[in-house]
From TrEMBL, chain A:
Swiss-Prot/TrEMBL keywords: ATP-binding, Nucleotide-binding, Transport
Full protein name: ABC transporter
Domain ABC transporter: 20-249
Lineage, uppermost ranks: Bacteria, Pseudomonadati, Pseudomonadota, Gammaproteobacteria, Chromatiales
SUPFAM superfamilies: P-loop containing nucleoside triphosphate hydrolases
Family, as annotated: Belongs to the ABC transporter superfamily.
InterPro entries the UniProt entry points to: AAA+_ATPase, ABC_transporter-like_ATP-bd, P-loop_NTPase
A Pfam family of this chain: ABC_tran
Matching PANTHER family: ABC TRANSPORTER, ATP-BINDING PROTEIN
CDD domains listed in its UniProt record: ABC_DR_subfamily_A (cd03230)
From TrEMBL, chain B:
Record flagged with keyword Transmembrane helix: yes
Alphabetical keyword list: Membrane, Transmembrane, Transmembrane helix
Pfam families reported in the protein's UniProt record: ABC2_membrane_2
GO cellular component: plasma membrane
Name of the molecule in the record: ABC transporter, permease protein, putative
Amino acid sequence: MEFGKPARSGYLPLLMDTLVRVTDLSRRFGSQQALSDVNLCLDRGEVLGLLGPNGAGKTTCLRILSGMLAPSRGRIEIQGIDLARKPLQAKRHLGYLPERPPLHPELRVDEYLTFCARIHRLPSRRIPESVAEAKRRCGLENSGQRLIAKLSKGFRQRLGIAQAILHRPKLLILDEPTEGLDPFQMRELRALIRSLAEECGVILSSHLLGEVQAVCDRAVIMHQGRVRFDARLQPSSQCSQWRIRLTPTSDAGVLVTLPHVLSSEAIGGDRYLVELDELGTAADLSRGIVMAGLGLLELLPEHSDLERVFFDLIGVEDRT
Amino acid sequence: MIGAIAGREIRSGLVTPLIWVLLGAGQVVLAWIYLKVVEDFSGLSADERVGSLTQELALNLFGFAAVIALLAAPLLAMRSLSAELREGSFDLLGSAPVRLGEVVIGKFLGLILLITPLCLLPAANLLMLSGIADLDPGHLAAATLGLWLAAVMFCAIGLYGSSLSSQPGASVLIGFGLLLLLSIVGRADSIGDMSLSLFDWLSWNEHLLWFLLGAVRMSDLGYFVLFTLFFLALTHRRLINRRLQ
């Protein structure tokens, strides 16, 4: 994974395909500044991943975007509609899945989704069709009569997503959507998010860097309430940096003489960071090490660029 | 929109045991009072009777039903906002294109419809006497109306208490506290000057008494409507403030 051009900032003129524009968003809780001058832009068909450590302001940002919280300062436009001035019109374009799915455990799945359709002002004749479609997309076809209180955590999460996409919103806000899902469900959710992104813009927050890399077009890293990084993600062909661990008796100086190796850097504990050229692969590197008579104990791909940026930004450089 | 929110409140209320427990317990207590009143009344000679059977039943049966409604309203209301705020399900309404005023009215209507059967219990008990005793239907209708209006006001106060805390237990206590205050405030005049009538006016039981005596007065109707609207407005303001806090 590598980064392309920096993403367009929020203060640039609103283009026709811009779905959300956030300008100078700030939020204070008493003496604590939770968000400071956040500027964001989201285009139609784009998936934006919001990354950051706990307390970075991700959830606050998403709650403000969904109209649950009022900002202390700043402006949010959804489809060109000011969220503060015309909240009802702006919220019609919004689907929101909070950190905890907003479910009513005493209802059945169909009853709950029908209620959600009504409060999103869907016409009565379209409700059965919309409910069936949302259930189909989230794998809940056979759960319509099940009591929500009896659903597993994964199914509750699916239902939370179903209520968010029920009215086909233009903007989908997902706060930690993979929380509680097993690896299969996570993979299904990634595919679902990608398919939803064909018709709407998606903002999702996650602690999982891999998740963001896998599903997002753009990553925004937040730290201490500020946007520290905002760039497009582009898939790279392969990993060029590898971490290796050799036996203590090995002569590490030989590493730079191996085929396709551009550089080698000792990072402590008999570990080395080896950079390969464009043609080099892990197979070439391991073969070269063995042929040179070095004892290879470990061979790991180096952290992705996003991971490095993340740790650099929050001041924790992982070198072990 | 209001109908959808109210319908969901009623549906949720009916599938949880609380309303059924309240109705069952209320009926047991009312049946006991009903039996006592009828037994005491029938045991007295015509000279010893202070009022009519209708009056005795209205004051005792409907009066105690008001106390049951007072206890029930904050319990029913805690689910409406406080529990939703705690469990996060309020986010569903908060992020939907719904006005907070519609949310308050929808939830309030749901509560009214849930507590209405409780208000009809005394009248339902009295149906057993139809054809046996000479009861005044107008008097009983006034008492039922008074009881219902009082219960509606209790719901508004309970809803306000529910909006103040995301801890359902605390919200129930706040509701009880407010209702208790409005129950005993009328006794303040007995402490000092008897001419002090503001505290009397503030007390709901003073206004309910006139309904139980069979008199429907505009001033009493105005009291219940005014206080109901006042606490609904406070609930609305509270929900707006939650977005700012």
